[in-house]
Amino acid sequence: MHSAQQHPGNSQPLNLLEAINRALLYAMEDDDKVVVFGEDIATNGGVFRATEGLKERFGFRRVMDTPLAENLIAGLAVGMASQGLKPVAEIQFMGFIYATLEQLISHAARLRNRTRGRLGCPLVIRAPFGGGIHAPEHHSESTEALFAHIPGLRVVIPSSSARAYGLLRAAIDCPDPVLFLEPKRLYRLQRLPVELDSDPLPLDRCFTLRAGEDVSLISWGAMIHETLAAADRLAEDGIKAEVIDVATLNPLDRDTLVATASKTGRVVIVHEAPFTGGFGAEIAATLASDALMHLLAPIERVTGHDCPMPDFAMEPQYMPSVERIVAAARRTLEY
Amino acid sequence: MFTSTPYALYQCLPALAADTDWPRLVSGYRHMTLIRTFDKKAVNLQRTGKLGTYASCLGAEAIGTAGGMALHDDDYFVPYYRDHATQYLRGVPLHQILQYWGGDERGNAFPSDTAAARDLPNCVPIATQLPQAAGIATKAKLGREHAAVLATCGDGATSRGDFYETLNVAGVWQLPLVVVVNNNQWAISVPQHLQTASKSIAHKAEAAGIEGLRVDGNDLPALLDVLDYALDKARHGKGATLIEAVSYRLSDHTTADDASRYRKASELHAAWQREPVARLRQALVDADHWDAAREKQWLADCQQQVDAAVDTYLNQPPQAPTDMLDFLYAELPDSLKPQRAALAQQAGGRHA
Question: How far is A15 from chain B (nearest CA, A)?
């Protein structure tokens, strides 16, 4: 169980990256089973500086630079976690995470099940994901749906500093394996107050960021910001949008999603990832069966296109925009 | 006393030294015979529809037995899937080994009061257990446990990135890890010379900066010497070792394979002349530590133990269908409750 020590200054203004850093710091202070490793994370503090200061604070035995091998990083984490450590491994960018898939699918996500509870796998794999920072090729993907299809693996995506802190603390405490995807476009976007002594957040619940009666806007990660901006735009015309941050894709909080769809009857799902087979499809299918009699319009999905993430020159054309979200919401209202 | 000579094939049989630990070898011989009896029975169970596809350990008895005997209880074992002897010696009951190959996950729930309780279960995706073994070795090193991790794989596994990544990190971090490659010459149908152009598998240690040793995998005393040395080295923080144990897969790859499609009967026949059980028996008989009477009695004991294990295996109650969800997460998430209820109802209906 989480045993929060009292940390000085309960509430601090932090950007999302600093919130991640504090979550790692305090988790390591609270539990000496927590170890952190990955490429460039120790002396360099991570290419985004998410692990800055940890090596100085805890030493190289708990903060380790690994050789450059993502499959190895995931395998190390599985081995450590199987014996009761709480490894928090960083994959430098989601575009390089695919070498970890075999360890995650064939081992991490099924170890507890296939040993009938004898060995658990309480690991956390952190990876920055998503576009919008003009990064090089392979640095801007959002392939979360691939991972949400793995039974036993929790897939968690924060969209604010407070949720980054609370969800990461929860992920590290969690006895299940967690893929923690960090929307890097939000890393340094804004500093907001974070309660450092707050309870960990649930790893199977959506967050209702704004209540409304007219249309439900459902999203996660960095796209929450476009979604909230779209809700503001709609509010100018008197349209009250409910905004849901899914936050945990697996296990999915279907109850909250069905409840909002049943309440408004109109749904727009927003994600950066491509349309076909995107996680929006799972949500749409759930609502089409469980909220069918309440739906007043076809479910809209505002997503990336069915192409590889373009290199950054065409990022603006690829990424869902506030305008596209507003237009989709209006289509549901005019249906 | 074993002194390491990189890459040279180390052998003890047939010329055993006078100061040989005979009781240990007799004990090892008994284990090897028991496992061979078990293995034969398991293949028969598969042939008669009472077991799923099974990976025989015929020809690997010495390697598996040496691993089990050389490990200490507070060491760790990370197997591939031909390690029944080691698993048995770590404390996994024979009926549970059958249960695993019988398609039942409860076979991996090793008894909590044995050394096996901490060991990883069989690993089917080739070589993927090796980075995990490095992770466990890291944990042992960070905790200053003075414990070693023994991981096994086959010769095919040494072509995978996992293998190289593991040796590499074991070198950089000076991990208390021993990787034993059971080089049984065949990765299903692909022979050694199509797997690697390396002079030997042990040579693959060179690039990682760790010690690489070759040992006769049909020679129990040699295997014990090498494993004692490497595990002790690991426990004392002196780094990792790659051990190539040269053996021959006397069985098909699994019961689903037919090795006569790709290898010559003459090659198999020649390999039988070097098989590990008969070789050790001969050495023990020659030194007057074993005889026909003891052999007869022990084989009868083995058969009895195996029959009892089969009986226990065949009389296990079925799992609850809801088990497929109940062990997935530490606590069942709300989102899975409808699926669990459907499974429970399905199960209830079937028994009604």
Answer: 30
Contact A42, A24 (CB under 8 A): no
Q: Are residue A242 and residue A182 in the same domain, yes or no?
A: no
Cα angle at B243 between B241 and B247, to 5 degrees? 170
Nearest residue, CB atoms, B328 vs list A82, A107, A113: A113
Q: Domain range holding A216?
A: 207-334
CB B308 within 8 A of CB B96: no
Residues from chain B that touch A87, judged by Cβ atoms under 8 A, are 135
Active site residue B351: no
Ranges of beta strands (E only) in chain A are: 11-14, 34-38, 63-65, 86-90, 124-129, 154-156, 178-183, 192-195, 207-210, 215-219, 241-245, 248-250, 267-274, 300-304
Closest-CA residue of B relative to A105 is B125
User: Under an 8 A CB cutoff, do A255 and B168 touch?
Assistant: no
Same domain, A66 and A185: yes
Per-residue pLDDT tens digits of chain B, which is 352 residues long? 677 788 899 999 988 988 899 999 999 999 999 999 999 999 999 999 999 999 999 999 999 999 999 999 999 999 999 999 999 999 999 999 999 999 999 999 999 999 999 999 999 999 999 999 999 999 999 999 999 999 999 999 999 999 999 999 999 999 999 999 999 999 999 999 999 999 999 999 999 999 999 999 999 999 999 999 999 999 999 999 999 999 999 999 999 999 999 999 999 999 999 999 999 999 999 999 999 999 999 999 999 999 999 999 999 999 999 999 999 999 999 999 999 999 999 877 554 3
Contact B345, B331 (CB under 8 A): no
Within 13 Å of residue B162, how many CA atoms lie on the same side as its CB?
A: 29
Shortest Cα distance from A148 to chain B (angstroms)? 13
Are A83 and B327 in contact (CB < 8 Å)? no
* ipTM greater than cut 0.95: yes
Domain boundary among A144, A169, A195: A195
- CATH number of the domain that A310 lies in? 3.40.50.920
> For residue A131, what is the domain's CATH number?
3.40.50.970
What is the set of active-site residues of A?
Answer: 139
Distance CA B312, CA B195 (A): 41
CB contact under 8 A, B327 and A82: no
Active site residue B10: no
Chain pair A-B, CB pairs under 8 angstroms: 138
Does the distance separating the beta carbons of B108 and A79 come in below 8 Å? no
Domain count of the fold of chain A: 2
Within a domain: residue A200? no
- Domains of chain B (ranges; CATH) run 9-317 (3.40.50.970), 319-352 (no CATH)
Q: Answer whether B208's CB lies under 8 Å from B173's CB.
A: no
Chain A positions touching B110 (Cβ under 8 A) are 115, 118
Chain A residues whose CB is inside 8 A of the B108 CB are: 114-116, 118
For the whole model, what pTM was predicted? 0.96
User: Is B135 close to A78, i.e. CB distance below 8 A?
Assistant: yes
